[in-house]
């Protein structure tokens, strides 16, 4: 355990020297699965779609394309995000 903490501290110092932030996470028996999942999510053409924006924020998106901020328009917009191929 002490070695892991020293290694994490060394990585943090190295990251500060290069201007990048380092986050060291140890998930014990799930390390490999977590890393594999993160690599899949971060691979080209993939990502995470956040669908938790407020009605007001969604309304701004609709307004920018000339649509009224109504429940039906917000629903259609969100459905379009999850059903469009690609």
% residues in beta strands: under 5%
What is the CA-CA span between the terminal residues? 44 Å
The coarse overall form would be elongated
The total count of strands amounts to: 0
In helices, the fraction of residues equals 55-70%
Can you tag this structure with a few keywords?
86 residues; mainly alpha; 59% helix
Compact description:
By secondary structure, the protein is mainly alpha-helical.
Break the fold down into its secondary structure elements and pairings.
Layout: H1 2-18, H2 31-41, H3 55-64, H4 71-83
Describe the protein.
This protein is an all-alpha fold and 86 residues long. The chain is 59% helix and 0% strand. The protein is built from four helices and no strands. It has helices at residues 2-18, 31-41, 55-64, 71-83. The longest helix is centred in the N-terminal third of the chain and has 17 residues, at 2-18. It starts with a helix and ends with a helix.
């Amino acid at each position: 355990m002490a070695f892991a903490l020293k290694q994490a501290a060394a990585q943090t110092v190295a990251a500060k020297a290069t201007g990048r932030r380092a986050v060291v996470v140890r998930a014990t028996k799930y390390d490999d699965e977590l890393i594999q999942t993160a690599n899949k999510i971060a691979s080209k053409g993939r990502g995470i779609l956040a669908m938790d924006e407020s009605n007001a924020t969604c309304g701004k998106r609709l307004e920018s394309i000339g649509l009224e901020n109504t429940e039906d328009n917000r629903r259609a917009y969100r459905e379009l995000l999850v059903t469009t191929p690609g």
